[in-house]
Amino acid sequence: MEKLALFEIDLSKVKLTIYNIKEGEHFTKCEELVERLDIDEDIREDELIKGPKIREVITMLGMFKKICEAEGVSRYLAVCSACVTNAKNYQTFVDECATAIGIEFRVMTPEQEINALYTATINTLDAPRGLIINISSNSTKLIHYNRRIVIESMSLPIGTNNFMGGEADLEKAAVAFKKMLATKAGFLANVDPEALIVLTGDSMAGFGMLSRKIGKYPLDVNHNYSVDRKSIDDVLKFLGTLDPVKQQKIKGVSSTSVTSILAGLHIAKAITSMAATQSLVLSDHMRSAGLLFHYALPFTVDRGVTDLLGYSLFSITESVGLKKKNCDQMYDLALTLFKQLKVMHKLPRGYARILRSASYLYHIGKKTGGDNWSKQNYNIILSLPLIGLSHKEIVLTAFVASCRKWEDFNLSEWVKYKDITTDEDLEALRKLANILAIAEALNIRAQDIVKDITCDILGDSVILKLITDLDTKAKRIDPNTAMIEIYYAKKYKNEFAKTFKKNLEIL
């Protein structure tokens, strides 16, 4: 793997993101630094970026470059937002930045930014039909797509910094914005009611954080966080009840951010009111993710990632040093048990997704080097940048991967998620955890000893027959070959009996 640094210059900030990349396979973010510089303050005065601001940006870029060198970065990408062209001297500004750090900057067009946003969304969310709303400091981008085909898109020159447009208050600015939408974005009325509205941008991330706090949402994960129009009204009402002093005291939100969130919410409310769809979700993946998909996985220029969960699990496990072959073997055994025991566990097929994610992440706690690694899985998994899973599925994955035996189950943690889980999920959790624990035992040497499993359910007993060798003529059973695997799998016999109400025998 190599390290790649992405430099981004917007009118409100300068950003550095460092990624680990394996070209053609995956990339993972390992560091992000953002510095607010408000370049647009200069542009609003006389449409020029003045010398002091240019020097300030160059100084920050130089610091970023030194950090990259210390981190062993070998590749660089550098882009400027299309909004930078609002300055008459933007080319001089871009050239000076490039010369100062020895990296060529590409000034993106609105069309290129829309393409990057679209690529980021379809490769990180399971949403075949959608309306992407990206709200940045100086623009709002709309992308209507269906079955991975962009139907209509546009970039509006209004964002959180210039939303007021000379109006005295937010309500008047909102009225003016709606009038502009009515003349320029009539296609919003044609968005499929079943489509998913995807909200992205810094102000939307702030909105998500406040929405979770207000609703006492148990999982602090922004990506794929489902909201509705009432959520927008709730946060607007909450912020409206606070005076400026109290707004500044909101943990994790500055006074500048509050102003940005308020403007972003009015923009989002105006746009969503013109579409019939009711399903809204937040996304953390924006232009930078789209650029990296195009760079590290060139095929995404023409087609998207077909297996989001598989891609996510592969990129995470490889980045932390878990061997894909071993993860594959464990999942194959777990899935075989899941299928063989279907008449007993009676779980819907959808729970196999939990089994898959928990199988691949089952040993991630070992990478911390501490004791009780299976219990550490819980906190680690909840903090991973997983895509392809709902929030409930992430929670279930964390519990399944941390409960080798039911005595490991933490009830006080489980009750935190009572609003997003069910009693059926709890029952499924116990069954999946037992299946996975047995599968791990059957792969304890990670040498693909057990090739297949057959299962006989007889009265009050379940007999697992391990197949350790396959030839072209017949399956040959050799229990001595799997003596170690059988020994460790039998340690879960009592747990199996308590979970499935049948005795377990392994041959």
State the main characteristics:
507 residues; alpha/beta; 6-stranded mixed β-sheet; 20 helices
Overview of this protein structure:
The chain is an alpha/beta fold and 507 residues long. The chain has 20 helices and 16 strands. It has helices at residues 40-46, 51-71, 90-101, 110-122, 170-184, 202-214, 229-240, 244-248, 255-272, 287-296, 308-320, 324-340, 342-345, 352-360, 373-382, 391-400, 411-414, 423-441, 483-489, 493-500, and strands at 2-9, 13-22, 26-36, 75-80, 106-107, 129-135, 140-146, 149-156, 196-200, 226-227, 279-282, 452-458, 461-467, 469-470, 475-476, 503-506. The strands form 4 sheets. A 6-stranded mixed sheet has the order 8-7-6-9-11-10, with helices on both faces. A 5-stranded mixed sheet has the order 3-2-1-4-5, with helices on both faces. Strands 12-13-16 form a 3-stranded mixed sheet, with helices on one face. Strand 7 and strand 8 (149-156) form a beta hairpin. Helix 2 (51-71) packs parallel to helix 3 (90-101), helix 14 (352-360) crosses helix 16 (391-400) and helix 15 runs antiparallel to helix 16. The longest helix is centred in the N-terminal third of the chain and has 21 residues, at 51-71. The chain is elongated. The model has no long low-confidence stretch (mean pLDDT 92).
